[in-house]
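Budget justification aside, the reviewers requested a transparent look at the raw inputs and outputs of the sequence design task funded under Objective 1. We therefore reproduce one unedited record. The lines immediately below are the structure tokens for a 362-residue chain.
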């Protein structure tokens, strides 16, 4: 088999990208932190590592290259704390995604918000010096992902590697888009769900639906921001922009420069991602049919997946029997597809509660 038929995927959880690659006819090899049942179903080989640090990744990647000749890689979420791993991947093979310099520039929040200000794109007030006691502020990690580590600011707290952002009321949302360093192609808008779990997890991402209550003019406004950001940062492939909507006002929060969880709400996008990274945007995307959403089920306490547990067909990211799930960590996710967004949200809530009752409370 030609080496171009193989695709290496590296992410905190590689299931979503592995499933998309498999459906696109590619032979997926995965390096992630779980190697769960679904991931193994869609891959030739799934390698579970204790971290995505380069010292853990390099020897496993070298072995996969030796055995399969794989020479191209797509990365997902989870590399935010490990930019050196991205450097290694870029040196080692064809990196199908934003290059390390772009990735780092977006993590440099002072530079990122300076660019937004220059582009006249609104965002909540930020500061890089601890604010005084007045006002409602959030502490956000510089290298954050999925809302982890965001928490309300308490004057006098010793926070490192963070910045402070004024709390903004509104509905959290995002937009998934393709880019070729010059242009942006919107895939879809979403409403995000957040789970208030515990200290440091008050704003943890817990899912989304590919539906957002935005007017046509608001969508056009955001699309214009995307075009400016793509050119300013040199973005390519699949990316997401997160925002807060407060009535007619929309504020940008961040750009995630890699395929995000929202891509599973659509049809096959891996080949579009690869083509966009190579400079070719699609002339048109398939029309959205109905609505899709998913929710993450988090563990309320430490427990092990029991032997013989039967997972419903609408569950994804299934851990194998005996796996220890720690309090506050994701256990699995549930998905729903319906013709009406309210039906999707209701079904997701019911399915999330069903898994929680059957499994997480045991």
């Amino acid at each position: 088999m030609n080496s171009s038929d193989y695709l290496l995927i590296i992410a905190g959880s590689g299931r979503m990208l592995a499933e998309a690659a498999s459906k696109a006819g590619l032979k997926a090899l995965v390096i992630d932190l779980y190697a769960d049942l679904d991931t193994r179903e869609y891959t030739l080989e799934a390698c579970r590592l204790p971290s995505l640090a380069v010292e853990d990744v390099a020897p496993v990647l070298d072995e996969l290259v030796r055995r399969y000749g794989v020479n191209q890689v797509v990365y997902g979420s989870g590399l935010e704390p490990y930019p050196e791993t991205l450097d290694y991947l870029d040196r080692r093979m064809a990196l199908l995604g934003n290059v390390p310099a772009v990735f780092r520039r977006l993590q440099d929040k002072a530079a990122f918000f300076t660019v937004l200000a220059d582009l006249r794109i609104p965002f909540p007030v930020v500061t890089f010096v601890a604010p005084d006691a007045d006002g409602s502020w959030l502490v956000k990690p510089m290298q954050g992902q999925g809302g982890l580590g965001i928490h309300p600011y308490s004057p006098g707290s010793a926070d490192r590697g963070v910045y402070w952002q004024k709390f903004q009321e509104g509905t959290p949302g995002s937009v998934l888009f393709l880019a070729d360093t010059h242009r942006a192609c919107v895939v879809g808008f979403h409403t995000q769900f957040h789970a208030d779990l515990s200290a440091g997890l008050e704003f943890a991402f817990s899912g989304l639906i590919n539906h957002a209550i935005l007017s046509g003019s608001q969508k056009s406004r955001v699309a214009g921001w995307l075009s400016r950001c793509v050119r300013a940062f040199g973005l390519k492939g699949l990316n997401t922009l997160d925002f807060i909507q407060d009535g007619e006002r929309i504020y940008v929060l961040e750009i995630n420069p890699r395929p995000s969880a929202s891509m599973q709400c659509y049809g096959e996008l891996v080949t579009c991602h690869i083509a966009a990274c190579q400079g070719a945007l699609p002339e048109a995307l398939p029309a959205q049919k109905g609505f899709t959403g998913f929710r993450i089920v988090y563990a309320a306490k430490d427990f092990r997946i029991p032997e013989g547990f039967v997972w419903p067909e609408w569950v994804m990211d299934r851990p194998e029997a005996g796996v220890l799930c720690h309090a506050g960590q994701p256990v699995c996710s549930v998905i729903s597809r319906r013709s009406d967004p309210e039906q999707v949200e209701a079904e997701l809530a019911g399915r999330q509660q069903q898994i929680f009752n059957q499994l997480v409370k045991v």
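The mean pLDDT is 93. The longest strand covers residues 184-195. Computational costs for records of this kind are itemized in the attached budget.
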